[in-house]
């Protein structure tokens, strides 16, 4: 059966991230589209993607998105900037369902800066990507754009450490040079980072604007569903959370980030631990 023949208003929205960071996007989706069902897949066993090779991320993205479509997903939200940069074109070429992907908020940051300097916090993979450099080329010509790779931050968030001394030290190390060079707007170019907003504001002060694209991605998802006649007609939606890690280990961090009970299920082993998985 063609995937497109199975797409139906009752199918869930499939959401995918290397780990729990995509919950920041899921939060925006649930706010805007509360009647939809969601099937969230976290590849926490293989997280972080930021330091992985492109082939590895492409293989994981293909496998997990394929599984989400098998679950009946009518649309896929790639709630991961790193997977977007490595795999979005490949996913679109492979699967005939709408694929909605992240875009670091360069354009709104350029519009918001008063100093003419913006900082971009991202994973190593996103920082090096042609997707980010072409966005900067397109929108960043009148301002100075400082890109800061932030290895280690995703791991802190996956471990549920949003404000401990190690997390604060990493934040200060990565943001200090940007602020010293005059940045007044920071782009949160990784879906894990919105969970650091309170800590970032505590450390940097409220005068530093923090911008992410979770809400914009939710609006784009709503547009696509509306245009394709795929909006759900039920009155309440539900969320399934699947992970490639041990659900018992993921539970505390999911609880901390989501603030409400969210039952956690383990992805099938063939999806979580693919036999012929490429080495990073
Ligand atoms: N949430 C992912 C992103 O937006 C984190 C990537 C990683 O696992 O390093 O880039």
Topology, please?
Layout lengths: L2 H4 L6 E5 L5 H10 L5 E5 L11 H17 L4 E4 L2 H14 L4 E3 L4 H7 L4 E6 L1 H5 L1 H10 L4 E6 L3 H6 L6 H16 L4 E4 L8 H8 L4 E3 L2 H14 L11 E5 L3 H12 L5 E3 L2 H4 L8
Parallel strand pairs: 1-2, 1-3, 2-9, 3-4, 5-6, 5-7, 7-8, 9-10
Helix pairs in contact: 2-11, 3-4, 9-10
Brief write-up:
With 280 residues, the protein is an alpha/beta fold. The chain has helices at residues 3-6, 23-32, 54-70, 81-94, 106-112, 124-128, 130-139, 153-158, 165-180, 197-204, 214-227, 247-258, 269-272, and strands spanning 13-17, 38-42, 75-78, 99-101, 117-122, 144-149, 185-188, 209-211, 239-243, 264-266. It has two domains: 13-101 and 215-272, Rossmann fold; 106-212, 3-Layer(aba) Sandwich (Rossmann fold), CATH 3.40.50.
End-to-end span in angstroms?
34 Å
Question: Count of DSSP E strands?
Answer: 10
CATH architecture identity of the largest domain: 3-Layer(aba) Sandwich
Adjacency order of strands in the biggest sheet: 4-3-1-2-9-10
Order of helices and strands: HEHEHEHEHEHHEHHEHEHEHEH
Helix content: 40-55%
Question: Mind describing the biggest β-sheet?
Answer: 6 strands, parallel
Summed up, the domain count is 2
Number of helical runs? 13
Q: SS-based structural class? A: alpha/beta
Provide the low-confidence segments as ranges. none
Under CATH, the topology of the largest domain is which?
Rossmann fold
The average pLDDT score comes to 94
Q: How much of the polypeptide forms β-strand, as a percent range? A: 15-25%
Envelope shape = globular
* CATH C-level category of the largest domain: Alpha Beta
Q: Which ligands occur here?
A: D-glutamic acid
């Amino acid at each position: 059966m063609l995937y497109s023949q199975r797409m139906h208003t009752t199918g869930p929205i499939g959401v995918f991230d290397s780990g729990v960071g995509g919950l920041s996007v899921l939060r925006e989706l649930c706010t805007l589209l509360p009647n939809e069902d969601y099937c969230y897949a976290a590849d926490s066993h293989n997280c972080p993607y930021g330091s992985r090779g492109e082939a590895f991320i492409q293989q994981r993205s293909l496998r997990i998105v394929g599984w989400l479509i098998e679950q009946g997903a009518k649309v896929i939200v790639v709630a991961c900037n790193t997977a977007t940069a490595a795999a979005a074109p490949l996913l679109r070429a492979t699967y005939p369902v709408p694929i909605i992907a992240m875009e670091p908020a360069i354009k709104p940051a350029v519009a918001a800066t008063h100093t003419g300097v913006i900082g971009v916090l991202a994973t190593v993979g996103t920082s090096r990507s042609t997707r980010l450099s072409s966005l900067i080329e397109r929108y960043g010509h009148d301002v100075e754009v400082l890109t800061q790779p932030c290895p280690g931050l995703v791991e802190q968030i996956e471990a549920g450490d949003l404000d401990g001394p190690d997390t604060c030290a990493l934040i200060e190390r990565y943001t200090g040079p940007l602020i010293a060079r005059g940045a007044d707007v920071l782009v949160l170019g990784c879906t894990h980072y919105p969970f650091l907003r309170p800590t970032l504001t505590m450390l940097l002060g409220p005068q530093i604007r923090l911008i992410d694209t979770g809400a914009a991605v939710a609006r784009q998802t709503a547009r696509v569903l509306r245009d394709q006649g795929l909006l759900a007609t039920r009155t309440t939606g539900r969320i399934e959370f699947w992970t490639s890690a041990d659900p018992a280990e993921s539970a505390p961090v999911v609880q901390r980030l989501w603030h409400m009970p969210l039952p956690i299920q383990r992805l099938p082993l063939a999806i979580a631990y693919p036999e012929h998985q490429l080495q990073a």
